[in-house]
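User: Structure please.
Assistant: Input sequence and predicted structure:
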Amino acid sequence: EKRLQNYREAEGIIGNNGGLGIAEREIDLVSEKLVDAKRERLELKSLNDQIVKVGRKRASNLQQIPSILGHPLVQSLKDVAASIEVRRSEIANRYGSKHPKMKALNSERSRAYSNLNKQIISIARGIENKYKVAIAAVESLEQSLADTKNSMQLLSGKEYKLKELQQDVDAKRALYDQFYKRFSETNAT
């Protein structure tokens, strides 16, 4: 029993089966996260490939990508630009193109489209950055899974030795109990 306890302490064994249950749960958890991370990486890769295909720096080309076009901030800025266009056309019909109100609206229109283009490019950069983070996350999870599997193999060896010591303890305890029972019977006789 003392050898068994010393072995548990020396190897840092927790639980009855050498910590294999914990390692198995960890492998399951990391595997699930890895599947999710790979799925996300594939989705982001598709978006990133579209961004690379149409060109990273041209907002007009990036608007062709549905996920960028559908972004709430892009939609909001497009609505602002559309309302400016409506007001601009009304003022152009009423006052003409040289009127000060028209010049002010042209300036406002330029700012609105500039903001829209900057936001579109920013969203594209954000997608590229998320893709890079997703690649790193998958690599990290794969390394973690490999480390956990290696740890589990080491734990399997420890579990084997632990079971061997435990069986030795159980056999000697049974033998001791048998001798003690006979000794008690003999004393009673």
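Helices lie at 2-11, 20-54, 59-62, 66-69, 72-95, 100-188.
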